[in-house]
């Protein structure tokens, strides 16, 4: 793998805010081009899972949520109660747009509520939550339970006033991968002119 310049300090210092229609970016710092998957292209290889800047910390705190494309994958970044979170943008259940959902605290955990079917997903771990009643317990009031991790979460870091997202390891499959991949195919489908 090709090494980055020594003045690079080991961090990817690109800040590309993605908006509709932006395809590729030339980095004056590195002298390389960003490809359509928002990966840095070098003459020999790509840096496949480097952190990608999704905006300034100040702007994202004001927005509270935004979408970005990180190495070809659509993610949503939330700022809630002093912390940043990143998840796949499409709900694991039916592909609902999580960036249009509202955040609700459930048992002390911030959760995004999918606007399509009201599925609750923890922002920190991607667990799907549901309410259940145990008929063997004296209290018949519903309690929140976990289905386990269903929504892929991604690492968020803040450096020099910018917010970066690094994709999680995609080797272990998660339910949200289905919609992340299918919406990418639809998004890249050639349009008739």
TrEMBL record:
GO MF terms held by the record: 2 iron, 2 sulfur cluster binding; metal ion binding
Swiss-Prot/TrEMBL cofactor(s): [2Fe-2S] cluster
Record domain Rieske: where: 52-165
Superkingdom as given in the UniProt entry: Eukaryota
Keyword Membrane: no
Cross-referenced Pfam families: Rieske_4
Name of the molecule in the record: Rieske domain-containing protein
Name of the coding gene: RFESD
């Amino acid at each position: 793998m090709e090494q980055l310049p020594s003045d690079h300090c080991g961090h990817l210092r690109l800040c590309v805010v993605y908006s509709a229609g932006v395809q590729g970016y030339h980095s004056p710092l590195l002298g390389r081009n960003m490809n359509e998957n928002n990966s840095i292209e070098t003459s020999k290889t790509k840096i496949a899972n480097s952190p990608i800047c999704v905006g300034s910390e100040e702007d994202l705190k004001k927005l509270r949520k935004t979408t970005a494309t990180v190495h070809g994958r659509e993610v949503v970044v939330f700022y809630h109660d002093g912390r940043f979170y990143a998840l796949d943008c499409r709900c694991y259940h039916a592909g609902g747009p999580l960036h249009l959902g509202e955040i609700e605290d459930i048992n002390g955990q911030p959760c995004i509520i999918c606007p399509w079917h009201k599925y609750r997903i923890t922002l920190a771990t991607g667990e799907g939550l549901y309410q259940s009643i145990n008929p063997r317990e004296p209290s018949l009031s519903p309690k929140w339970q976990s289905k386990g991790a269903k929504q892929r979460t991604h690492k968020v870091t803040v450096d020099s006033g910018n917010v970066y997202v690094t994709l999680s390891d995609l080797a272990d499959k998660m339910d949200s991968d289905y919609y992340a991949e299918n919406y990418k195919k639809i998004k890249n489908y050639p349009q008739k002119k």
